[in-house]
Known about the structure:
The chain has helices at residues 12-21, 34-47, 80-99, 121-131, 144-147, 161-168, 174-180, 199-208, 227-281, 306-341, and strands spanning 29-33, 53-61, 64-72, 106-112, 138-142, 154-159, 188-191, 193-196. By secondary structure, the protein is of the alpha/beta class. The protein folds into two domains: 24-221, Cytidine Deaminase, domain 2 (3-Layer(aba) Sandwich); 238-341. The model is unreliable at 1-9 and 15-21 (pLDDT under 50). Belongs to the eIF-3 subunit H family.
Amino acid sequence: MANPPAAGGKSFLQAIATVTEEAPPPLRVVQMEGLAVLKIIKHCEEFAPALVTGQLLGLDVGSVLEVTNCFPFPTREDDEEADADGANYQLEMMRCLREVNVDNNTVGWYQSCLLGSFQTVELIETFMNYQENIRRCVCIVYDPSRSSQGVLALKALKLTDSFMELYRNNGLTGEKLREKKLSWVDIFEEIPIKVSNSALVSAFMKELEPESPVSQCDFDRLKLSTAPFMERNLEFMIGCMDALSSEQNKFQYYYRNLGRQQSQQQAWLQKRRQENMSRKAAGEEPLPEEDPSNPIFKPLPEPSRLEGYLVTNQISSYCNHINGVAGQNFNRLYLAKALQED
């Protein structure tokens, strides 16, 4: 016969419920299978410069999100029938994967981008839609244009908890952002990616490796001209600067209207108080000092700061790209100079 729990202790079911209700550990790393990485790169490179997306499948294990497989979404036009076909395609693919005993748990999605231009309102809305059904999800972003420069431009992103809370409550106003101390760098959180392979795949790769290493000079790395890449980055950054300027004009217009409304309110209150003084002198009841039906007392809606924050994030990304490419170019120039002197 089982002994009852001691006084102040918990039963087994209570302990299980407590563990279940505990908050999950923070996400520390995204562990991707090499096959999944190759599938993402192949899909994005084949359709570049067109943008493509796909589904990520895997497991959520503690602080590690494992991505073991993926499949692409079909390219389609933006209409309701195409959206319904896309949803049916996803369900059918996951059913087929389940039948062949492949991980079919959705852990996020991947998408391609052009020169790092992925920070959009659509990305945030997609994150929020995924978060309704999945506790934790990530977006893997692959940039074929940057990868052509010799860097594997693959990153895992998620929204920060503080930003998601404000976004759900429509609190992206200046006052709320100052209260939460949320700046433009606190929208996205980049999670480190770790690429791993099974022991069988590693053994197979070892078999494919030649006995003697192949010595081959990669002269493409010594090209001194990266003008097209720098040019496009600068063009996109100038476009973002124009967008940021228009966002600032919106807020200047809002604050001008707010100042004008406050001046009208003060003038109206002063006039009402003088009128009430006259009514008191005549022995009449004073009128209320606030009139909700008056348009000047209607609060002006403050524009959302989301667009401005996203554009600022994008400008920072372009600056980092230009800085990285410029640093590599300087190294090549110094190397070429040293070779010529010798």
